[in-house]
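seq:
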Amino acid sequence: MRRLEKTAANLNGEQMQAMRTIKKVAPYLWPPGEAWVKRRVVISLIMLVAAKLIAIATPLFYKWAVDHLGGTFSAPAMFLALGAVGLTIAYGMTRILSTLFQQLRDVIFTRVGQRALRKLAIETFEHIHQLSMRYHITRKTGGLSRIIERGVKGVDFLLRFLLFSIGPLVLELLLVLGILFFLFDVWYMLVVLVTIIIYVWFTFSVTEWRVKVRKEMNDQDTDANQKAIDSLLNYETVKYFGAEEREARRYDVAMAKYEEAAVLTNNSLAYLNSGQALIITLGLIIVMVMAAIQVDAGTLTVGDFVMVNAYMIQITIPLNFLGTVYREIRQALVDMSAMFTLLEQPAEITDKPGARPLKVTGGEIELKAVHFGYDPEREILKGVSIKVPAGQTVAIVGSSGSGKSTIGRLLFRFYDVTGGALTIDGQDVRDVTMRSLHDSIGVVPQDTVLFNDTVGYNIAYGKDGATKAEIEESARAASIHDFIMSLPKGYETQVGERGLKLSGGEKQRVGIARTLLKNPPILLLDEATSALDTETEMGIQAELKAMGQGRTVITIAHRLSTIADADRIVVLEDGVVVEEGSHDALLSREGRYWHLWNRQASEEELAA
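struct:
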């Protein structure tokens, strides 16, 4: 066995991490101000103690029944009248009562555990949505979901087994050791105590090694799962490049690493189980031999012999379970630590203390000498100043990497500017609440991603609690109502994963419909038609133009033909505004915009 190297530093670190995790879980088990939860926990503990006390008394009835059958009357006077049959029935009843109290304990505690899981799950879910876009684009969604899944399961395990396995086991062992000391002699107690100590030492030592092996297996499992999800989400791309075999090989490489780790995990489990069985069996043999010698000598009865055996078997079962419980608790602490680390991840963009709701009086947007970079080493916007008057449409154009889409992300406050300011009707977006800012802006992105639900659900997403009439009105305004009604299930038609059952144009119209339903005073069109063919684009442009009536509109465009009628066009290059003006005015200057326009016209002629 390859031993896990331990130092005082990493052991103390692991212990501190475990204590930190347990402290995080404690409030879910004993929540302040929720008396009904505390009552259930207390009643569960009472049931636990009652079950163990009855379980400890069970072998005594077994002993008395055996002695009575052998003609030795060793039972207390109050039980002698029961006779051998009565003592046997009493033995059976104690076993039933012990099991009954255990089951009652589980029934009472289940609601506490499930409530804790629910609260933790919703807290984690809400926290993930509060994290910044920077965090989400650097994390793998599949890996993130596995961290949450394992973490919640770990809490469930810890709440149930730490409270109802480790605690009861310690109580039962102390009671058994006490009985062996008082009813027999100190040597019986010492043999059992030494057996338990060696067993626990062996279990903990091997488990520490197995934790590292198990972590490697989980890492490989997460990696393989992420590759599978990534491949399936890019189903069309895989087909376009005939890369099915390549994806299968990539997935198989990840699964091969998982296989190796899983085999080592299984083999280490066999080693652990074998060692545990050997230690327990040796202890059992020594105690039984000691009892057999004393029975032969006449100092113990046959009932004492079977009672010793019953107690040894009784503690063997929970001790065997200790290996599993400790292993799982150790793993649960690792999984929970990852989840609580996620919960401790600070949100990069938050409301300022005392932030007020945004008040949109006209919808004027202004960028004042804005500086920003995703990486401090590489600035994207270098002192950009743009003013979008209320109710006007301003288009932002430029070559790839010039910073066009970055302006849209700053407007929605996915990121904060690093210099200058971005205001709406004179209010800095950093000084208003995120909720009010998001409620005031409608976005139609380049690729509208839909939920794997119905068409109606996706349109209704624009307004919480939208009525059927409002949904249909928005669909008509987006020129998609007739198409929806032609579908077999109408608005109840499923759109598939990310809306794959709809064409690009149909998805964009659903996106337009839900933005119309939101009815925001400010509209951001982020290359809303650049992913569509020319004919579909021309059809959708009419809906986009109609949607912009009476609203302040920022259009981030790649195809210049789609923004020729904008009130003003801003040309960005390398994070700097190089030109601005109307379409005709910019063409007459024969500057950067003129070059972009002619180049696109030449490309379209060449394509034709």
